[in-house]
Amino acid sequence: MNIWTKILLLSMAILSGGMSFAQEAEKPEMATGLKSNGMIYIVVIVLLIVFAGIVFYLITIDRKLNRIEKELKK
Fold first, then answer.
1. Rounded to an integer, what distance in angstroms lies between the CA atom of residue 36 and that of residue 32?
2. What is the pLDDT of residue 7?
3. Which residues of 30-66 are buried (b: 16+ CB within 10 A; e: fewer)?
4. Sign of torsion, CA 15 21 27 31?
5. Which of 25, 40, 51, 64 could form a disulfide with 34 if both were Cys (CB 3.0 to 4.6 A apart)?
6. Which ranges constitute the DSSP H helices of the chain?
7. Beta strands in 1-74 (DSSP E)
8. pTM, two decimal places
9. What is the dihedral of CA 53, 59, 61, 67, to 10 degrees?
10. Three-state secondary-structure class, residue 2
11. Residue 34 has what pLDDT?
12. Residues 6+ away with beta carbon under 8 Å from 73
């Protein structure tokens, strides 16, 4: 690798780290209302249900694909 490429990558890594620290000053207030009302648990449950559905769908597709592959090998 060229020395200039290494210097450029190093400077980009240093600058990107500094930018992320600058954003810590503001705290998001969008979740405060959900926490106070207890609605955050409903959001988490819905996300878990959606994630479980996606995982179940991927498992069924994998089983079907394995069955088709076995049939094609015969």
1. 6
2. 77
3. eeeeeeeeeeeeeeeeeeeeeeeeeeeeeeeeeeeee
4. positive
5. 40
6. 3-22, 30-37, 40-73
7. none
8. 0.52
9. -150
10. coil
11. 66
12. none
Reported as a pLDDT band with limits 50, 70 and 90, residue 71 is: very high
Q: How many residues does the chain have?
A: 74
- In three-state secondary structure terms, 13 is helix
**The Cα angle at residue 34 between residues 31 and 39, in degrees rounded to 5:** 140
pLDDT of residue 25: 58
The encoded tokens of residue 16 equal 């990107």
Residue with tokens 């990107």: 16
The values of phi and psi at residue 46, to 5°, are -65, -40
Residue 14 has which token pair? 């240093």
Residues 4-55 pLDDT 10s: 777 777 777 777 765 555 555 566 666 666 667 778 888 889 999 999 999 9
